[in-house]
Amino acid sequence: MSEINVAAVGCSLADYLYTDIDFNSDVFRKYQSRVEGDGGLSPGHLVFAGDLAKFADSDFQTIINEITGGKPFTAFNLGGPAIVALINAAQLLHGAPVKFSFFGALGRDATAGRMLEIIQRTPVRIEHYQKVSGESPCTDVLSDPNYANGKGERTFINNIGACWNYTPDMLDKSFFDADILFFGATALTPGIHDHLTALLARGKAVDTINIVTTVFDFRNEKDHPGRPWPLGESNDSFRMIDLLVMDWDEALKISGKNHFDDAFKFFIDQGVKTLIVTHGAHDFYAWSSGKLFEPLEMTAYPVCALADQIMLENPASRGDTTGCGDNFAGGVLASVAAQIAAGKKPGELKMIDACARGAASGGFACFSIGGVYREPSPGDKQAQIERFYQSYLEQLGQS
Ligand SMILES: Nc1ncnc2c1ncn2[C@@H]1O[C@H](COP(=O)(O)OP(=O)(O)OP(=O)(O)O)[C@@H](O)[C@H]1O
Ligand SMILES: [Mg+2]
Predict the structure, then answer these.
(1) Beta-carbon neighbours within 5 Å of ion ligand 2
(2) Ligand 1 neighbourhood includes 310 CB (under 6 angstroms)
(3) In this predicted model, what pLDDT tens digit does every residue of 17-75 receive, in sequence order?
């Protein structure tokens, strides 16, 4: 076994939940969107804090205070696809010779303290998680349980904050010294996302394995509606990606295709080396060129049946599906790192192991609220996931 370094950059943020917000109140209506895309609040949708502030000609904190009536938040969670995936991968590889480091930006505020308190209890290293000017990135989730005739609805305000000030030059040599680079949902860290092609190329120049995961790209969707979402400066990004993990909607939007098969073919034609596309509780699809994993034709894999069975037998075990995709990606990342650490060379990795760790992690995430599992002790998640991993292999007739 050789020691492996994984360096990750991308979205890590605070999720603040505010319950019992009345979307029919005068104060909510004051900040409600009049025309689509004007920056105002819209039940069920996400707006950027900066756009909302411009719309209301006010500052973000004043607006939040007014809407919440100054009440404190109901719940706080660490979120963001990059950190959630990385924490899962690090938890799964407890005891393995793999180091996981997160690179990114926080503000110098109370939110940063809350986020770091959670991350510090995980095996992820944060020496390169920098404090810069601006507020720590966060999503405020406003929830009205009575909206839509009692069905309830949520409204999201995302503040990129300090991440606007996180630029590619802040990714120094220590980032590119890693064996595996993980670019997680960089659409929510614009300074990195807009330079992804160059960053992937810098990795490739020193022979890194490049893994990219995606997220709904609200910024490009708003700025260029109807156009494919860019992944970096140009489509040259694709041929430098050894493994691309996305969900169904992101695959359609990034490829700019209307049909899934066309989208899948687009990424293969563009030179992506391995592709995995998830689809919630439906089958997910995997394909490998043979450059990182052994060659595999486009194959449908089921989700983890044991997770579904437990939720069916015991509805109280159900948390929410937030972070299923991020944990799935973390499981796949853990598989790549573990196989490389065990001495496998690019081209020799087993896709079945990646899919099983991904499906077990994605399924397990259904049991908790939010994406991060807070371990009572190191090794706990690894032990818990093992059962789902083994069961998944049995489900595929592979054990
Ligand atoms: N209901 C479910 N039962 C079992 N597994 C699930 C379920 N929902 C999701 N998963 C697992 O998680 C994986 C990823 O889910 P999904 O495609 O919803 O990701 P996503 O859209 O990126 O979600 P998010 O961004 O909220 O994390 C699925 O392929 C599956 O393996
Ligand atoms: Mg996702």
Answers:
(1) 247, 325
(2) no
(3) 999 999 999 999 999 999 988 999 999 888 999 999 999 999 988 999 999 999 999 99
Under DSSP, the state recorded for 242 is S
Query: Topology of 4-14+78-135+162-395 in CATH?
Result: UDP-N-acetylmuramoyl-L-alanine:D-glutamate ligase (3.40.1190)
Contact between 378 and 94 under an 8 Å Cβ cutoff? The reply is yes
Q: How far is the CA of 162 from the centre of ligand 1 (A)?
A: 29
User: Per-residue pLDDT tens for 184-234?
Assistant: 999 999 999 999 999 999 999 999 999 999 999 989 998 998 999 999 999
Under the banding of pLDDT at 50, 70 and 90, the label for residue 368 is confident
Closest CA to 273 of 294, 251, 302, 246: 294
For residue 237, CA distances in Å to 112, 121, 191, 229 come to 32, 34, 16, 13
- Written as six digits, the tokens of 70 are 């100054």
Residue 85 Cα to ligand 1 midpoint, Å, equals 13
- Which ligand neighbours the alpha carbon of 318 most closely? 1
Ligand 1 contact, 284 CB (< 6 A): yes
179, 209 contact by CB (below 8 A): yes
